[in-house]
Amino acid sequence: PFCNVSKTHFRQMAGISLKLVSSGGGEATAYQQICSLCLTQPAKYTCPRCNARYCSLDCYKSEKHAQCSENFYREWFMSELQQKKGSPEERQRMLEMLKKLEAEKEA
Q: Residues 28, 29, 33, 35: is their CA dihedral positive or negative?
């Protein structure tokens, strides 16, 4: 144990979920990291922003991860928007569309 804390308890504190898996011979041979969002499926991916391990796009877009994923999409969109050199009319149309989307979200 690390600092009188069991390995299981240490993994739980660190937000790591592991599952003992078998290679087919009946013996448990390895640990497999579990999705930190649904806590049921094996984790296949890692979020580049928060390093959360997740299993699917559904989990990535879930309420548990919404803060991180929404910020990621917002930052990406704003970066792309800043790189685009549009006319003043195009910028005005885009702002109107964004205001409309924000109003629909609040309703």
A: negative
């924000």: which residue's tokens? 102
DSSP 17-49: EEEEEE-SSSSEEEEEEEPTTTSSSBP-EE-TT
* pTM score: 0.49
For 70-90, give the DSSP string: HHHHHHHHHHHHHH----HHH
Strand, coil or helix: 92:
helix
Model pLDDT for residues 54-95, shown as the tens digit of each residue: 999 999 989 998 888 888 888 888 888 788 777 888 888 888
Q: Residue 36 and residue 27: Cα distance in Å, rounded?
A: 25
- For 32, residues 6+ apart whose C-beta sits below 8 A from its C-beta are 18, 19, 20, 21, 42
**Can you tell me the distance from the alpha carbon of 40 to that of 55, in angstroms, rounded to the nearest whole number?**
9
Residue 72: CB atoms within 10 A of its CB come to 16
